[in-house]
TrEMBL record:
Subunit-level organization: Homotrimer.
The UniProt record lists the keyword tRNA-binding: no
Lineage: Bacteria, Pseudomonadati, Pseudomonadota, Betaproteobacteria, Burkholderiales
Catalytic activity line of the entry: oxaloacetate + H(+) = pyruvate + CO2; 4-hydroxy-4-methyl-2-oxoglutarate = 2 pyruvate
Residue positions binding Mg(2+): D103
Protein's UniProt name: 4-hydroxy-4-methyl-2-oxoglutarate aldolase
Superkingdom classification of source: Bacteria
Function, in words: Catalyzes the aldol cleavage of 4-hydroxy-4-methyl-2-oxoglutarate (HMG) into 2 molecules of pyruvate. Also contains a secondary oxaloacetate (OAA) decarboxylase activity due to the common pyruvate enolate transition state formed following C-C bond cleavage in the retro-aldol and decarboxylation reactions.
């Protein structure tokens, strides 16, 4: 069964908003070659340093989605063509970057979903900063490693277990 985010919102209307979570919409933009993604969540928190993003996508994705809290910074790109190719090669289902990406044509060529707030051509400096698999709070939505995320063109929803 392939439910959309809209279907899930209809089905889970009465749920506790702390359990079935709908991320506030409209600001996310889809940059990848796949229109949506679903999978268990792995996380990174970093600011203008993509050391941990690189480490994550160079490891096994096992169909998971990588959610990166980049502090909304649009000053430096946390992901570009090389890291997107590594993510696809290593079986990540997709990436959600609360920050910026670059190499737009190369991102579109990858068969995975990539969502970000915006883009900028300037890469980060990798200084070894950032945290892996920590709980995040993005736009007021709690996102924890091991939970489940579904994203499609209508938006993004999070649940403790796959729906
Ligand atoms: O390496 C980086 O920091 C980002 C990038 O340009 C790429 O992934 O190709």
């Amino acid at each position: 069964m392939n439910l959309s985010t809209c279907d899930l919102c209809d089905l889970h209307k009465g749920d506790d908003p702390g359990v079935f979570r709908v991320m506030p919409g409209s600001r996310w933009r889809s940059y990848g070659g796949a229109p949506g993604m679903a999978g268990l969540i792995s996380t990174v928190r970093c600011l203008e340093d993509n050391t941990q993003v690189k480490a994550a996508v160079e490891g096994p994705g096992q169909g998971r989605v990588l959610v990166v809290d980049g502090g909304m910074s649009l000053r430096r790109a946390l992901l570009g063509g090389n890291l997107a190719a590594a993510a696809a090669r290593n079986a990540w289902a997709g990436l959600l970057i609360h920050g910026a990406v670059r190499d737009l044509a190369e991102l579109r060529a990858q068969p995975i979903a990539i969502w970000a707030l915006g883009h900028v051509p300037l890469p980060t400096e990798r200084l070894g900063q950032g945290l892996r698999d920590v709980p995040l709070l993005i736009d007021g939505t709690a996102i924890r490693p091991g939970e489940w995320l579904l994203a499609d063109e209508d938006g993004l929803v999070v649940h403790p277990t796959p729906l």
